[in-house]
Specification:
Radius of gyration: 14 Å
Strand content: 15-25%
Strand order of the largest sheet: 2-1-3-4-5
CATH superfamily: Response regulator
Structural class: alpha/beta
CATH architecture: 3-Layer(aba) Sandwich
Low-confidence stretches: none
Shape: globular
Number of helices: 5
Oligomer: single chain
Distance between the termini: 20 Å
CATH topology: Rossmann fold
Order of helices and strands: EHEHEHEHEH
Largest sheet: 5 strands, parallel
Helix content: 25-40%
Number of domains: 1
Length: about 140
């Protein structure tokens, strides 16, 4: 992504509206222009992604219907190479193993500090081709 008008497109798949809103507010600290879209299910996320791909996926593991890891797997099968961040309250060796197998870029166990999420996303920006504009 290049050009000053382009915005980083971030999709959050999180079935808890309160957590989604807190994450949305926290990402204001990224230091880059971005568009933030939240959906409540992996199926909604896939539908939006098909319409216009995103630069970054943030997804909860435990969702109604398809899991966050199944979402990552499906997007990868459809050609997506966007970095992914998986968050979960169900941290286990099995979930971590599955996340590695699906090449999840970052993994955060709930509860986590919002600063930790922002730093995790900020660390993925060079991979997306984005550089901070007001460096933190």
């Amino acid at each position: 992504m290049t050009g000053s008008e382009q915005r980083l497109r971030i999709l959050l798949v999180e079935d808890d509206n309160h957590i989604g809103r807190v994450i949305e507010l926290a990402l204001g600290e990224l230091g880059v222009p971005y568009e933030f879209v939240t959906v409540l299910s992996a199926e909604e996320g896939l539908e939006l992604w098909e319409q216009q791909p995103f630069d970054l996926l943030l997804t909860d593991y435990n969702l109604r219907g398809m899991t966050g890891l199944k979402l990552v797997e499906t997007l990868t099968e459809r050609g997506s190479t966007a970095p992914t961040v998986l968050v979960t309250a169900y941290d286990s060796v099995e979930v971590r193993r599955e996340a590695r197998a699906r090449k999840v870029s970052a993994y955060l166990s709930k509860p986590f500090f919002m600063d930790e999420l922002v730093e995790t996303v900020r660390g993925l920006l060079p991979q997306i081709g984005v550089h901070e504009v007001n460096g933190a």
